[in-house]
Amino acid sequence: VWAGYYRSTDGGTTWSNSLVPGYPGDTSPAGSASGTSGVCNAAGDPTQSFDGSGRLFYGFICFNRAKPSNGNFYVATYENDGADYVRTTAVATGTPSVWGIFNDKVNLVVDQTSGPRSGTVYVGWVKYPGQAANNVLQIARSTDHGVSFSKPVRVSQGLGEEQFADMAVGPDGSLYVTWRVFAHQKSTSVDIWTAKSTDGGQTFSSPVRIATSISAFDGEAFGPGGCGDGPFACASGLTYPRFATLSAVTADASGVHIVWNERLPSGQSKVFVRNSPDGLTWPTAAAQIDGVAAGHQWFPDIASADGTITAIFYDSRADPAYSPDRPSGNTATGANSGNVVDIVAAHSTDGGVTWTEATATTAGSNLNWEQFGSRRSSFMGDYIYVSAVPGRVVGAWTDTRDVVAGTDPRETGASDDADGFDVFQGGCVYTPNDINAPSYSSPLISDACLSQGGLDSNIYAGGL
Hints:
Low-confidence stretches: 433-438
Mean pLDDT: 90
Strand order of the largest sheet: 3-4-5-6
């Protein structure tokens, strides 16, 4: 499991695929020179941004699933419009302990203006301090094209569990960041916060809370954070991945715009937007992007170019079995309701006041396939992206339209064979092969069953 790097030079029609150097077993000169070499065996949480000179900066975390866990944050640099790998630099390092420091939930943005801080690379992440109850959001910067990064600046207040920083640079070079607070400690609530820097990320304004005590659309609203089969099954009989309410920010000539999703009193998850002229004052209340009565909408991202703001998000308005009391893609009996989740793109040309929508996907997904946790639970990832530059807007998302359904040979009797969320196994060899066994092992990498469609959860990209 590593950070994949995919590059297209024909507008997204075809792609070359590769891995960021430094993965386990990478003996190339670039891989051996990477700070990740021999340190960690898994990587994820990708985040990318170009500068104005054709350099691409790729942020990711690197960790071990067993001790020592590490939990490091790195940024790889590519030049020549992302064609040539240059280096990988450590931004923050964790400690090799289950209860040590872990750096997670990363975001990266580059100043693409022509101002005095043009080319500055900003990175934001959450520092989990082991057994302490609270974590903090930090931001660092690089002014030498990713060769080195500054000492991080603490942005959030440490009120509770603060996660998922998202950043944007405005036309004047100001840096904006938003994040979400999880209500895991007493006296905390689910809130959306934001802060602003006008000096290149060296200092930040006092954080502003723009949404207070919202009803989060988290997996925990329906039971545990994720539900699958066998030892991963939930009492509700539903199947779904981990997901959560998140926020995202963009800035343009009309101001600063932040989107997030939350549940209405009815239980439906909707995408909300709030607009500000300067990122410090928020004179108008949050508003729903639309009033569609059916379907959950969640995981939004936002970007702006050419006077048009674009927000994209997962949307299950096409689900005939939709209920505000269930996660998307489940029938009332906990069965697969089909590929009913689409990507919807919303556009605003008046500074985020009014919006029009269009479905961006040509085929739907169901994000509940049991492909992970030894292929018994679901996972969709934590990210969806939209990028806007003059003349072009492109989104990227997790898509399961290509997954091949099947049965799980480990299930016996009246198990969950009938729920429709099992994927094609194709003769996979499991040890042990008993659903009641305390341990579930996955097939070896050499097992040909892995390439027969059951794990075919892909990343799709499309113009919006």
